[in-house]
Amino acid sequence: MKKYKVGIIGGTGMVGQRFITLMEGHPWFQLTVIAASPRSAGKTYEQAVSGRWAMEKPIPEEAKGLVVMDAQADVEKIAGLVDFVFCAVDMKKDEIRALEERYAKAECPVVSNNSAHRWTDDVPMVVPEMNPQHIEIIPAQRRRLGTKRGFIAVKSNCSIQSYAPAITPLLKYGVEKVLVCTYQAISGAGKTFERWPEMVDNLIPYIGGEEEKSEQEPLKIWGRIENDKFVKADGPSITAQCLRVPVSDGHTAAVFIKFSGEKPSIEQIKLDWANFKGRAQELELPSAPKQFIHYFEEPDRPQAKLDRELEGGMAVSMGRLREDTQYDYKFVGLSHNTLRGAAGGAVLLAELLCAEGYIDHM
C-alpha cells in the first residue's frame, strides 16, 4: 500500500522521541517531517537531540538526517508536505490549542498527544478499543473549522489506560463507584533518572492536574454525541489519587469498584476481560494488541518491569482481582505510559482514522 506521509510536531521531547521510534518500520506510515521549537529548527534531528536522546533504541537512521522545521513558523509548509501530523509539543495549553487549530485549518489532520483539546466539545478523545464511534463527530468539527481534510483528534491521559479499559466491559453491570490510586512512572513527566536524580529512592504524592483528568476523562470516553457535541456519561463516580514513583516506564493503578446492582462473579469479570475486543482488533490495525487485556493469576503481578512491554507495550495488564470489605472488588492494573498511554496510543488512533477513511492521501 502507498504509505501515509507523517509529520511529528514536537519531535525532540520525550513523547516526540517515542513517536520517532514508532515510525521506524511502520507498515503504513513514513516519517517525512520533524518539527520543533526555533532553537532546534535548522539542525539535523541527530544534532537537535544530541545529549538528550532518552530512548533505549538508537535514533532511527531515517530520522537522523532530517532537518528539523519550525513547528510554529512553518505550519503551511509542513501541511503541504504530509498527509497528517502527530503533535506532542511542550507549550501552554492555549498556545497548543491555537497551534493545533492552525494545522487543522491548513487542511492537515492532527492526531494529538496533548491534553489541550481533550475537552473541546467536538474533538474526539479516543481509545480505539473503547470508543471508536466517537470519530463520527469529525464531519461536524470540520464544519466548525471550515475545512475539508483538516481536523483534530486526541488520545486520552496516559494514566487512565491502566484502569479504564478494565472497567469498560463491566459497565453493563452498573458500575456505581470507582476509587483509584495511580503510581506513575517518571517518563510521564518527560524525565529519566539521569535527568531527575531526586526521584531515586523517592515518591512524590502530587502530579499537577492528574487527579482531575483521571476522574473526568473516562466520562467523556464513555459519553455520547448529541447535537454535534460530546456529552459526558453520568457515571460511574470516580475518585483518584496520583503519585509519582521511582519507575522508568509503566503506570500502575490500584482500583476499587462498586456495582449498583447484583455484582458479577470474579470468574465472570475475568471472562469479560479475556473476551474484550474492539474496533482496533476487528480491523487488525498494525499497532493493535491481539489480546487487549491480559490477566495474571500470580499474586505478585502485574509488575512494571516484567509486564509493561506486553504486545509491544500496547496491551494492558490486570491482576489481584478479589473481593473488598468496603467496595465490591479490588484489583491492580498496569499500562505502558509512553506506548499504550502516549505515542503508541496516538499511532493506534491514527491507524483507526486511516482505516475508517478520515485521513486520506494528499
From TrEMBL:
<keyword id="KW-0521">NADP</keyword>
<dbReference type="Pfam" id="PF02774">
    <property type="entry name" value="Semialdhyde_dhC"/>
</dbReference>
<protein>
    <submittedName>
        <fullName>Aspartate-semialdehyde dehydrogenase</fullName>
        <ecNumber>1.2.1.11</ecNumber>
    </submittedName>
</protein>
<dbReference type="InterPro" id="IPR005676">
    <property type="entry name" value="Asp_semi-ald_DH_pep-lack"/>
</dbReference>
<dbReference type="GO" id="GO:0050661">
    <property type="term" value="F:NADP binding"/>
</dbReference>
<dbReference type="InterPro" id="IPR036291">
    <property type="entry name" value="NAD(P)-bd_dom_sf"/>
</dbReference>
<feature type="domain" description="Semialdehyde dehydrogenase NAD-binding">
    <location>
        <begin position="5"/>
        <end position="138"/>
    </location>
</feature>
<dbReference type="InterPro" id="IPR000534">
    <property type="entry name" value="Semialdehyde_DH_NAD-bd"/>
</dbReference>
<dbReference type="GO" id="GO:0009086">
    <property type="term" value="P:methionine biosynthetic process"/>
</dbReference>
<dbReference type="InterPro" id="IPR012280">
    <property type="entry name" value="Semialdhyde_DH_dimer_dom"/>
</dbReference>
<dbReference type="Pfam" id="PF01118">
    <property type="entry name" value="Semialdhyde_dh"/>
</dbReference>
<feature type="active site" description="Proton acceptor">
    <location>
        <position position="251"/>
    </location>
</feature>
<dbReference type="InterPro" id="IPR051823">
    <property type="entry name" value="ASADH-related"/>
</dbReference>
<dbReference type="GO" id="GO:0004073">
    <property type="term" value="F:aspartate-semialdehyde dehydrogenase activity"/>
</dbReference>
<feature type="active site" description="Acyl-thioester intermediate">
    <location>
        <position position="158"/>
    </location>
</feature>
<comment type="similarity">
    <text>Belongs to the aspartate-semialdehyde dehydrogenase family.</text>
</comment>
<dbReference type="GO" id="GO:0051287">
    <property type="term" value="F:NAD binding"/>
</dbReference>
<keyword id="KW-0560">Oxidoreductase</keyword>
<dbReference type="GO" id="GO:0009088">
    <property type="term" value="P:threonine biosynthetic process"/>
</dbReference>
<dbReference type="GO" id="GO:0046983">
    <property type="term" value="F:protein dimerization activity"/>
</dbReference>
